[in-house]
Design goal:
The chain contains nine helices and 17 strands. The protein is an alpha/beta fold and 337 residues long. The protein folds into two domains: 268 residues, Spore Coat Polysaccharide Biosynthesis Protein SpsA, Chain A; 44 residues, no CATH class. Strands 7-2-1-8-15-10-16 form a seven-stranded mixed sheet. A two-stranded antiparallel sheet has the order 3-6. β12 and β13 form a beta hairpin. It is globular and about 65 Å long.
């Protein structure tokens, strides 16, 4: 029973800002509605290019025996195609309050990226992608600001993410001013276990500015899902200019490193990771449904399953090595019980 003098708590008003290329939005929209829009009763906004590329199923590139990238697909500019606006409107429906498509030539982002010498690219990542990314992020923030001003509304919480993400758990952060909420780990390993941890930050120190990002794999960050209290969204304004200044001062052209420097060190936001947030970047060609029979674990669960037999025929040496490793673990476990 609510007494007359008790004030009912109002549910926070939530906006979700989608930005960037619409690669696999048809596949991811249903999980986005289920796990992001509906739990928050959220309004959705989108800003991005009128054309989109098609990211391959894997962007891991070629690595050497030490795990270092020899060839990063993100260093190349992929061909693009037009966005199906009717399909876009259909999958997002009335939750989409406002959307805008821009026609900025990718060469414009390449001109911005010239501030970083090609020899200083980190992981072979073309900085033009970073400038395209922050331009789209800044654009969707302006779209939200225009809507608030025109409609006379204001939001309490803002979630910033991409349209090519498939969600597998509710994203419903309880955000307070002065914090930035982010995931802890994207995707799953080959046995279906959730990845934990984020991208490592890269060491940077500048005597003139007093900036210092600790190296040695101690700090991590994630830029794929971010949640802010509405007053803190101002840290996304002027982002393109800020990125250009950071990179000109030789901040490593790693998005996680630059965002951490900008949000946490410069703006004072405290990162709050959420290991319970479960999601993956859905790339073109990735399966929509998987189960244990699609993984190498099927040989441990049911060695006589049809797919287990097929795996052994295709890679007998690899299967025997994995079997030996598993047996050693079982023996060691029995001996140490």
């Amino acid at each position: 029973m609510t007494m007359p003098f008790e004030r009912e708590k109002r549910a926070p008003k939530v906006a979700v800002l989608l930005y960037g290329m619409l690669r696999t939005f048809r596949e991811t929209a249903a999980s986005f509605h289920r796990h992001v829009v509906e739990p928050n009763n959220a309004d959705v906004f989108y800003f991005g290019p009128a054309q989109s590329d098609i990211a391959p199923p894997s962007l891991s590139g070629r690595v050497d025996i030490f795990g270092n990238l020899k060839d990063n697909p993100k260093g190349r500019v992929d061909p693009v195609h037009g966005v199906d606006h009717e399909a876009f409107a259909a999958v997002y429906g009335p939750a989409m309050r406002r959307a805008r498509f821009h026609h900025v030539d990718p060469e414009e982002f390449a001109r911005h990226a010239a501030v970083v010498d090609r020899r200083e690219w980190i992981f072979g990542l073309n900085p033009a992608r970073l400038f395209s990314m922050v331009y789209n992020m800044e654009g969707v923030v302006h779209l939200l600001e225009d809507y608030e001003r025109e409609q006379g509304v204001s939001y309490d919480t803002v979630i910033v993410t991409r349209p090519d993400i498939a969600f597998f758990s509710p994203i419903r952060p309880r955000v307070r001013p002065g914090t930035v909420h982010l995931p802890s780990g994207e995707g799953f390993d080959e046995w279906g276990r959730k990845h934990m941890g984020n991208a490592r930050l890269l060491y940077y120190k500048n005597v003139d500015t007093g900036d210092y990002v600790e190296g040695g794999d101690k700090l991590t960050f994630n830029d794929q899902i971010l949640a802010f209290a509405r007053p803190d969204l101002s840290c996304l304004s002027g982002l393109t200019k800020a990125f250009g200044e950071y990179l000109a001062r030789k901040v490593p052209a790693s998005p996680e490193t630059v965002f951490y420097l900008h949000f946490c060190l410069r703006r004072g936001l405290k990162p709050k990771p959420h290991p319970e947030w479960c999601y993956q970047i859905q790339r073109a060609g990735m399966p929509l449904v998987e189960n244990v029979a699609d993984t190498s674990m099927i040989r441990l669960v049911d060695r006589y399953h049809t797919k287990a037999r097929e795996r052994f025929k295709q890679d007998p040496v690899g299967c025997l090595l994995r079997d030996a490793k598993h047996l050693i673990k079982r023996v060691a476990h029995r001996l140490t019980r």
